[in-house]
């Protein structure tokens, strides 16, 4: 396992960098190129699962379209990678920061993210994504910012 994605495979760095830049640019096509057509996504928001790239793309289009003038800056922390053959399992803490048109940060939230990545006919693609946030015992609300232990 590696805690430094920059020391890991080039394709992983390209996927992480591609994800960050596609979200910042609100570029649906670039974002979707990271995913396999048969991707299965367990998202943290509202729907139990997305079972192909078409259903996932509709959600991404809604997300990017809802941002208006805001942009989202994504950062990955505590990236852990396990690679074998043409596959990798990645887990990370991902921060999504909403940025106003003047460049100021409006708010942020954090997710736990896991990816399964495989090498297929179109290169390395995300075949499974799972995002989550812990739920507070007392109030049953999502905890959107990591707390110190």
Which architecture name does CATH use? Roll
Strand percentage, roughly? Answer: 35-45%
Highest CATH level, the class? Alpha Beta
Report the biggest beta sheet as strand number plus sense, adding barrel if it closes. Answer: 5 strands, mixed
Proportion of residues in helical segments: 10-25%
End-to-end C-alpha gap: 23 Å
Q: Which segments are poorly predicted (pLDDT under 50) over 5 or more consecutive residues? A: 1-7
- Mean pLDDT across all residues, rounded? 89
Query: What is the element string, with H for helices and E for strands?
Result: HHEHEEEE
Strands of the largest sheet, in order across it?
A: 1-5-4-3-2
Task: Tell me what you see in this structure.
The protein is of the alpha+beta class and 149 residues long. The protein has one domain: Nuclear Transport Factor 2, Chain: A, CATH 3.10.450. It is 23% helix and 41% strand. The chain contains three helices and five strands. It has helices at residues 10-25, 28-32, 53-66, and strands spanning 35-42, 71-84, 87-99, 105-120, 123-132. The protein has a five-stranded mixed beta sheet with strand order 1-5-4-3-2, covered by helices on one side. Strand 4 and strand 5 form a beta hairpin. The chain is globular, with a radius of gyration of 15 Å. The two termini are 23 Å apart. The model is unreliable at 1-7 (pLDDT under 50).
């Amino acid at each position: 396992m590696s805690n430094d994605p920059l020391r890991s495979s080039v394709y992983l760095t390209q996927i992480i960098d591609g994800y960050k830049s596609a979200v910042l640019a609100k570029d649906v096509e670039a974002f979707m190129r990271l995913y396999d057509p048969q991707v299965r996504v367990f998202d943290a928001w509202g729907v139990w699962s997305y079972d192909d790239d078409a259903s996932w793309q509709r959600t991404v289009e809604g997300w990017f379209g809802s941002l208006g003038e805001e942009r989202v800056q994504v950062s990955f922390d505590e990236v852990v990678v396990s690679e074998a053959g043409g596959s990798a399992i990645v887990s990370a803490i991902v921060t999504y920061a909403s940025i106003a048109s003047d460049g100021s940060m409006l708010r942020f939230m954090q997710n736990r993210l896991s990816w399964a990545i495989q090498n297929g006919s179109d290169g390395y693609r995300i075949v499974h994504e799972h995002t989550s946030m812990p739920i507070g015992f007392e109030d049953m609300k999502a905890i959107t910012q990591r707390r110190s232990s």
